[in-house]
Amino acid sequence: MANIIDYIAWRGDLPFSVVPFNDIDSLILCQISYLDFSGIVSERFKEYITLDDAASLFRSAKDFSKRRKVGAMINSQTVELLFAAASSKRFGDVKACGYTTRFDLQKEEQFSAVTFLTDDKYAFVVFRGTDDTIIGWKEDFNMGVLETVPSQIDALFYLTEAMKSIRGRFRTGGHSKGGNLSIYAAANIDRKFKKRISCVYNNDGPGFREETVASSCFRSLAPKIRSFYPQLSIVGMLFSHAGSYTVVESEQAGIRQHDPFSWHLTKDGFVSLPGFDAASEWFHDTFNAWFRALSEAERSRFVGTLFKVLQATDARTNSELEKNWWQNSAKIVGAFAKLDGPSRDNIIKTVQLLFQIGHHNLPAVQFLQSGGARAKAPVKSRT
After folding, report:
1. What is the 3-state secondary structure (H, E, C) of the chain?
2. Which of these, 55, 233, 281, 298, has the minimum number of CB atoms within 10 Å of its CB?
3. So what's the pLDDT on residue 354?
4. Which of the four CATH numbers 1.20.1250, 3.40.50, 1.20.272, 3.30.1150 does domain 4-273 have?
5. Is residue 380's pLDDT more than 50?
């Protein structure tokens, strides 16, 4: 089945004036945002470079071999996607500007954004999803613990600055955490800017705390949100969501369905399904019931202790963690053993609660897998 690179082969010769910007175009630019454009795309919103020229500089960069290593969590075909898009008529003249990236251990933040200007007179602000860094994944967990995380605050500031600098209509979006950031920024931006935002693309991004989704600023944005999740979504089932969604068929299994290259599509759009797989429904119900059952203090202690144990490996990225897995496993076990009694008990009790809730929900999953009704979705499905 075809993927996003095939789409460029099909539609690459057609400008946006002929075939309007669509959901797949959004996903392609969101995936390209995972690449390191430092020193290639200007940090300023008034200085532009075409995607074609940016790709040429990316390819000829002295540290190209380093830039092309996107880590264990990002598909290595992303570099190929950039080159295919840049050489096409559809994407080659798209202008890029406002590139920013930051990584802050103290603030527990991993953030990056870039703005694309398409020939249909729109600006598309894209927020990068979680990269290969462990601190980036901790920030994801912090979304369920803290009212706001640093990346959300920076996303709001970035979108505001972009809309001050660039006239006209806007789209915003991202994959994974990038989808969450795009929703947060668009929901909380000043009203005079919000009315200039036409669409928010959320590609399998995690949700928000229930009270956040229930707020008036989120409810007012919901009609503009276009969310897409693979049939067995894991990341997208975290926490609560605003707006409706589309379930996309994927060729991969389990967590690997989070990879946009696995999403099936035609030249006209994604191959959609009527609902999630039973396993995705089970994970959604189990994880969120478990998280709601924990107090604020218990959530914070669990996340803090979990990543304290992981940090004992001295690995900064998931790639480093996997590379020396047996050695790092021993360090993790050793770090867990050294925890004080209350911290160790918190981890054990919290995990036990997760298994108890999961076991309680299991009969429903077995019924669905044996031919029962297809899993229901957490929000009303988009048609």
Report:
1. CCCHHHHHHHHCCCCCCCCCCCHHHHHHHHHHCCCCCCCCCCCCCCCCEEHHHHHHHHHHCCCHHHHCCCCCCCCCCHHHHHHHHHCCHHHHCCEEEEEEEEEECCCCEEEEEEEEEECCCEEEEEECCCCCEHHHHHHHHHCCCCCCCHHHHHHHHHHHHHHHHCCCEEEEEEECHHHHHHHHHHHHCCHHHHCCEEEEEEECCCCECHHHHCCHHHHHHHHHEEEEEECCCCHHHCCECCCCEEEECECCCHHHHHCHHHECEECCEECEECCCCHHHHHHHHHHHHHHHHCCHHHHHHHHHHHHHHHHCCCCCEHHHHHHCHHHHHHHHHHHHHHCCHHHHHHHHHHHHHHHHHHHHHHHHHHHHHCCCCCCCCCCCECC
2. 298
3. 54
4. 3.40.50
5. no
